[in-house]
Amino acid sequence: MPYMLISTQIRLETGPTNVGDEYSDPVVMNYLGARKTTMLGNNFSEYHVDEPPRLVLDKLERIGFRVLTMTGVGQTLVWCLHKDKE
Predict the structure, then answer these.
(1) For residues 68 and 82, is the Cβ–Cβ distance under 8 A?
(2) pTM of this prediction?
(3) Check: CATH 3.40.50.2300 for 3-83?
(4) How far is residue 28's CA from residue 15's CA, in Å, rounded to a whole number?
(5) Residue 53, preceding bond cis, omega within 30 degrees?
(6) What are the residue ranges spanned by the domains of the chain?
(7) Maximum distance among all alpha carbons in the chain?
C-alpha cells in the first residue's frame, strides 16, 4: 500500500497518534508497534501508537515513506505519506 494517513488531535501533539485503519498493511503496523482498537459505537477499527507524530514520521521515513502534505481539519492534524513501489 503506497499511501498512508496518520493523525492526532491538536491538544495531543505528544501522542497518541492514529496510524492506520483496519485495511492498513499489518507489516507496517507491526513495525510501528501499533495496536488495533475499535471505539465503542464505531463499526470500524483503527491502529494507534502512544508516540507523538514526529517520532512516527521519523520511523516511516526510515522504511521509505515521505510526507506528501499535511493539514489541520478542525481539531485534528493529518499527514498524508507515500512510499514508492519497489
Answers:
(1) yes
(2) 0.86
(3) no
(4) 18
(5) no
(6) 3-83
(7) 39
Question: Within 10 Å of residue 28's Cβ, how many Cβ atoms?
Answer: 19
Q: Which tens digit of pLDDT belongs to each residue from 11-65? A: 766 778 999 999 999 999 999 999 998 888 888 889 999 999 999 999 999 999 9
How far is the C-alpha of 12 from the C-alpha of 17, rounded, in Å? 8
Give the DSSP per-residue string, 28-67.
HHHHHT-EEE--TT-SS-EEEESS-HHHHHHHHHHTTEEE
Q: Which amino acid makes up residue 18? A: N
The conformational region for residue 74 under phi > 0 = left, psi -120 to 50 = alpha, else beta, is: left
